[in-house]
Nitrate transporter component, nrtA (Nitratireductor basaltis), 404 residues
Amino acid sequence: MITELSAGFLPLTDSAILIAAKERGFAEAEGIALNLVRETSWANIRDKLAVGQFEISHALAPMPIAANLGLTPFDTRLIAPMALGLGGNAITVSNALLARMQEGSGFSGLDAAVAGRALADVVAEGRSSGEKPLQFGVVHPFSGHNFELRYWLSASGINPDRDIEIVILPPSLMADALASGQIDGYCVGEPWNSVGVARGAGQIITTKSSIWASSPEKVLAVREDWAGENTETLHALLRALYRAAEWCGQSANHFELASLLGSSSYLDQPVEFILPALDGSILGMSAPNEGRDFFQPHARAATFPWQSHALWFYSQMVRCGYVGHSAEHAEMVRKSYRPDIYRAALTGIDVPVPSANSKVEGALRETTAVGASSQFLYLGPDGFFDGTIFDPDGLDAYIARQAD
């Protein structure tokens, strides 16, 4: 018996696991026919999932959290029983802004701290001369892009609400907006940074993996009520997606994966724009070690829905003033990510699953073996570029420090 599932996705490289599950037969092997529907915006994804047009979706990692905190139009509880990889975003600026960053500091390379200092110098100069604030694009208010951009700016001495204007654009419009001079930079997932560079509109100055190594980006989102009513189907889907993630993570498959993603049904972009994010060459020869960790679809428990990831996003929502902090809100956020469902789904197929639901974020400076259900599991490095640590058990104190 085949179960049909409709899944929304945006044309991004980090939709790879869903696409591979369909195209490489992993979903079919679990009795699932995946109908992948390409959408143009995250608002469409959110709304169609909420009203039942999609059973599942490729989703921004903070999206289920925002829904459950009442920050979205529909009163629908969403959960994330699986992550869809680590990393995959970059920050690209116009050639004109890059030239200004290089003038003052000789900035080069892609280190987040160095890039942040160079941008801070430009912002300070512009503020003193009365210039209009720089404009940066992100894809949605409740996105990893928005929160990592704001975190990077703040830690670099730039006030993201006063010194920079942050605007919302769909991923596919970022390169055009940069080329036309409507924005000065953007934070977006691949391949849209590579597209901007290929069009000559700008250059990548840093990456998500440099701001926060091994950091979360997209999740599989489902309605909580649907998950409860379709347990066996959901478990079968998670097994298929896990096998797809394993396949996506093997370097021997990267060219085939890039070809699948590049087809007109999915990203509709040349293979040469997609492959760099998969094989780690996106950053060029100047920073080969950083590029290696740009996007991880499987390694480092990349598909595990860590509740500490959810709580970090929540801390940034509080910091930005989207929601007030309370114990009730924190518990609601914790329950938005469901490692219990992930474990139950993968029991019996002999794959390593973390034994903990949360971890201290930013504590691992090198690859480290951790407790798992079977075999060996390696995590990290997972450091923040400014050296801070996020301990989910110290959530109150972390939020209080950010308000200072």
About this structure: DSSP finds 19 helices and 14 strands in the chain. Residues 285-289 have pLDDT under 50 and may be disordered.
